[in-house]
Amino acid sequence: MYDITHLRPTEFPLSADNIYFNHASISPIPARTQARMHWATDKLAQNPSRHFMEDGMPMFGQFMTDFAAFINATGPEEIVPVTTTSAALNAVAQAIEWQSGDNLILADMEFPSNAYPWLSLGQDGVEARLVPSVGGGLTLAALEPYVDERTRLIAASAIQFFSGHRTDLAAIGQFCRERGIIFAVDAIQAAGHIPLDVQTMAIDILAAGGQKSLLAPPGIGFLYVRQEICDQLQPRLIGPNATVNYLHWLDYDLAPLPGAQRFMAGTPNTVGMFGLLASLSLLQELEMAAIDQHTSNLAARAIGQLADRDYTVVTPVDAHGPIVTFASGRDAAATDALVADLARQNIFVVKHLDKEGRPHIRLSFHCYNTEAELARFMTALDSL
């Protein structure tokens, strides 16, 4: 394991005065990321053209290369920066050549970013089949009865935003690959928390915004599209830097660039890209397996301690990551008051509603949280 006593003051100084258990909403950026973004902003103020050419252009290549290695893509041509998960998945959804009568499959408790892009295809005659969640997420056994010869795509979250369910990506990916079904993964709650291997897991499309598990600023993330899938996609959202002849601005040629670069939306958020790469460097230093072990252990302790207090925990004991959600045992107004009372003690969690509108409280850990912080949360919860 990494040295958490060194990590907290050097990279996460907020941990001195705050217990922050809300990383599944938005994470604090590490100190190195803040410094790198300040550097990039200063460069933009001094001479943006020079900065873009001398610093920005080499950084683009590093971005594709580093994230390809991070998820074990076959090469940098399968990676492109994006603004958000929803922007990435919408772009891909609109680029697939759907036929009326095709269908796709997703769980009935996906976050809107991984639901709306697929549900919106109904206007093109594509049926979205919602599979009842099992243990808070999508399972291979549950989805199999929904698959037929017109199933073109299965969408899943690597880790569910509400329940914290950890999807067996390898099992579903292999099922899809054997049948020629596209497998698309929303990894915003997982990239930065658990090891992801798109080749071993047979993932065709993977998207993640940076502001959650990647410990990066909002408005920047990455999209992976497997090369063989890219060759089949014709983007309908086309940016000026996404075409083969993009340097000849007045020659309107829609021929897409090879690989994932066809999804470039325009001039990217370079400050955010520098920041995201700085956060990635920290995650790689700590190592994904170590972060996964640490945060999963914290989650397991939280599940047990909440169950001991007779709270109803919706997070599965045997398939979870860094997220734990439990029924508050109060109405919505009282739950809001509880969350506010905790915040006044510098303990930060969030309220979420289930499908029936019942209030729950969600804890979401990251690499620098500790068992002592969890104990303080439990003491505060008991007192309130």
Can you give keywords for this protein?
384 residues; alpha/beta; Aspartate Aminotransferase, domain 1; Aspartate Aminotransferase, domain 2; three-stranded antiparallel sheet; 12 helices; 12 strands
**Largest β sheet strand count, sense and barrel closure:** 7 strands, mixed
Strand content: 5-15%
Distance between the termini: 34 Å
Secondary structural class: alpha/beta
CATH topology of the largest domain: Aspartate Aminotransferase, domain 2
Mean pLDDT, nearest integer? 97
Number of helices: 12
Q: pLDDT under 50 segments (min length 5)?
A: none
CATH H-level superfamily of the largest domain: Type I PLP-dependent aspartate aminotransferase-like (Major domain)
Strand order of the largest sheet: 2-8-7-6-5-3-4
| Whole-number total of structural domains | 2
